[in-house]
Amino acid sequence: MLISCDPGIKGALAFFNQHGCMGVHDMPVRAKPTAGKIKNEIDPVALQKLLRRNVPADEKGLVVMETLNAFMGSGEERHGSMASQASLAATKAVICTVCELSGFDMAFVSPREWQRFFGIKATPSETTKQQSLRLARSLFGMEYCPLQKHDGRADALLIGRYGQRHFT
């Protein structure tokens, strides 16, 4: 069983067996209990339940997750606030911890690596997210990503296809 993960609050998980994609699910989130800029966080209990519902207890699983890198810099060079960078690190830690405690092996792939595999590159007329959505719909059908906001699902599906080719 291969589980692909586009991490993040708007990310998703896709589940693959030897026959193909079994389903794709938005990342489970909950309201963050503390005040601040970041309003939501990954729900670790719901994430574990989602993994257990989709992977039979007697099967091993490999989670292929897109690597997350905070874009550090100073002043104008910084991409994202310190709060968003901390949230990104917390998201990665929660997902990895839940997956490992659930007995799944982990593999990581950079966005650049899996996007290059599919020929995805930003153009003046189409962002990488738009290209991912278009490509995932052509490979897997509209039912997995019916809305424009489902670019996280599209990324999870494509990461899964990349994982099938490179990790299994």
From TrEMBL:
InterPro entries, alphabetized: MOC1-like, RNaseH_sf
MF annotations from Gene Ontology: crossover junction DNA endonuclease activity; nucleic acid binding
PANTHER family (UniProt xref): HOLLIDAY JUNCTION RESOLVASE MOC1, CHLOROPLASTIC-RELATED (PTHR36015)
Record protein name field: Uncharacterized protein
